[in-house]
Amino acid sequence: MDSRVVEIKKSINKMKDIPTLSQVSLRLVKLLNKENASLNELSEIIKFDQSLAERIVGVANSPFFGYPGRINSIEQALLMLGFNLAKSVALGVSIFHSFNLEPKNLKNLWAHSYCVAVMSEMFCKNVPVSNRNVCFLSGLLHDIGRIVLFKHYSADKYRETHAQLNALHGEDLEAAETQNFGCTHSQAGEWFLQQLSFPEEIVLSVHNHHALDQETRHKGIVTLIYLAEGIVSHTAPDYLSDSEWTDKHEKLFRGLGFEQMHMDEFRMRIEQEREFITGFMG
């Protein structure tokens, strides 16, 4: 095994420790896997982190959920979102917020990932998957491996490397990541979520979000993330996208019954979210 991979896996194992990944995040992961968990349990966990609570209220007030400016408390936010979606939002936001990265990188990754989450959730009715909450959380965390690599290779000497990688997409990006780091961000994301005992369908959707043809067990959710990321790269290229719109995306898009008017609608939806997205990680 490549020695760099060994070091990255050691680093990921340490990320479970405070302060890299908060106790709130770890408790939320346990709640994700708990049968018969309740909204009260979720609320009690979130209340331990006032910053997280404020961010969840912010998400609930985003245009996507249809209540802009009308949600004033964490209790309202949880009731409006519903338990499963609120749990997914809380966990995704908590993990993002746990990583102390350069603000520009964090904001851009959040913007891209949130848009992919929104698109994934919107597509749920077109592709057979488990549920909309898994779609949203998978979309939000699909590029978590990029954060892991940013965190592990955070020294100044890697600054130029990261800048060069940020300009690449798809297979070119993953080839360059393997050359520089010994693994891709898709692999790093898989290892990170496995370490936290995430459900298999989310782990595999993260691992295969650039490799649609490689997944068979959870084809539906991988299809959603693959298509959603392609659409976000096509409609919001100024965000830190690592995908690009290809003929394969176009064929899949048309095969699911979408047309150009839908692409225009998706572009408008992302524009409506822009103010919220760019200010969220401020």
Short characterization:
This protein is an all-alpha fold and 282 residues long. It contains 16 helices and no strands. It is globular.
Characteristics of this structure?
2 domains; mainly alpha; 282 residues; Hypothetical protein af1432; single chain
Structure write-up:
Helices cover 67% and strands 0% of the residues. By secondary structure, the chain is mainly α. The protein has two domains: 78 residues, no CATH class; 179 residues, Hypothetical protein af1432, CATH 1.10.3210. Helix 2 runs antiparallel to helix 3. The longest helix is centred in the middle third of the chain and has 21 residues. It is globular and about 45 Å long. The termini are far apart.
The CATH C-level name of the largest domain is: Mainly Alpha
Give the end-to-end Cα distance, rounded to a whole number of Å.
Answer: 39 Å
For the sheet with most strands, the description reads: none
DSSP summary: helix tally = 16
Global morphology: globular
Q: What's the alpha carbon Rg, rounded to whole Å? A: 18 Å
CATH level 3 topology of the largest domain: Hypothetical protein af1432
Structure classification: mainly alpha
Report mean pLDDT, rounded to a whole number.
85
Order of helices and strands: HHHHHHHHHHHHHHHH
- The tally of beta strands, per DSSP, is 0
Domain count: 2
